[in-house]
Amino acid sequence: MNLANRNLVTIDDLSNGEIEALFSLADEMANSPNEQSGLCQGKIMASLFFEPSTRTRLSFEAGMLRLGGRVISAVDIGASSLAKGESIADMAKVLGSYADIIVIRHPWEGAARVVADYAGVPVINAGDGSHEHPTQTLCDFYTIRKERQTVKGLRIALWGDLKHGRTVHSLIYALARFGATILFCPGPGLEMPEHVLRRLSTEYKGELQRCRDLNQEPERRLFPIDAIYMTPSSPHQLAMLPDISIRVELKAGVDALYVTRLQKERQAPTVEEQELKKGYPVVDKKLLKGKEFKKTLVMHPLPRVDELTHELDADPRSMYFKQAAYGMPVRMALLALLLGAKEVTIPEEEDSFVRKIDYPVYKRDSGVKCPNRNCVSNQETEVRYIKPEFKIVSREPLTLRCVYCDHELHPRYVASSEWHQRKLESKKYHSADSHFAWKINPENLIIFASEKEAQAQQFKPSSYARQ
Ligand code: CP
Is the pTM of this model over 0.90? Predict the structure, then answer.
């Protein structure tokens, strides 16, 4: 199969079979890295890193050079014309005429998607704010596969800043898709965002259980477990006795502990760094003496700061430098595939752990905005080319998910375009919670950020406006 001209903006842009096929090609690249120099001759990769990077940028650039291609780069947003107010879309269109593929890291969530919408050449998201980092997930999966052959049925603990860490936000969906059980071990106040957990519990077939009570036990305090997602392939089900089945899962051992650093650059300005650091969970020799960690792979996307002690570097369970090293063959394989330099055979998919849901889309000129200030749809305000766009993921309660950054919002007022057409007197708005509102077809739905906005557009309150 040919993956030429595809984008990798979120981890869901690749199917499980495509990821497996990419790993087979990465094996080929790893076995003979010096024999690949004919594959991408004459091709140019634009490497745009508008946030700091060591591994992602340099493994992509080294990978492209090993494939025989060439690299052009920009690493300072202030030295690019974005600093003069150029839109990301214009930058993307121009770069698409200079380069054959674009790799971009940007502080705004959803920026890579906008570049992909406008560039006309394949675009790879190398990290967009706190949103996603799909190629890191490929490196993480490749590492687990090398050590454990499969991800299905493994228990993987995600540790640290689950609120802001983009690596865990891509990883979580891939783990659920491949049938892993996921343990959430956040630092205080750094829990996985609600919209991520909600998506996990509605779009995947496993069960999500909050387990704050377990933290009261002295032996659990070292291991700050906050929630568990149990894959349907687990022999222990949560439905009957959730606490007991969680204990049974933990006793069976943690297969991988995925540690992340405190993302201090993404904290709200009001948050005291010292306060966050004080309660941040540290992975050290003492923790890993626990029975559940006897055969655990200790993983970290790097860079690390204080959350993972250097004393563990020589421990055979430590995988983080291998993860970083695998970045080269994995990214070489990805570049070769998206540039059409290689074709692969996609293996048949095993049982799916995903519920396939086709959500209706909401996109109108006026109305609601994404609540995430760091979303590209709010940041590119000077130019009006990005219309806020949402998936309607629930009607009861009305829930919209931003297509750029995945943040959710729950609007309170709606109207129907069908009911008011040509009849000004029936131009009414309703509470989004009313049964009347639930009957409006998605294609006719008009959503307001507030009553004031509805009234500004000449809508009057219906008897269902205040519930
Ligand atoms: N893991 C990762 O993204 O590392 P860099 O920030 O160094 O690229």
Answer: yes
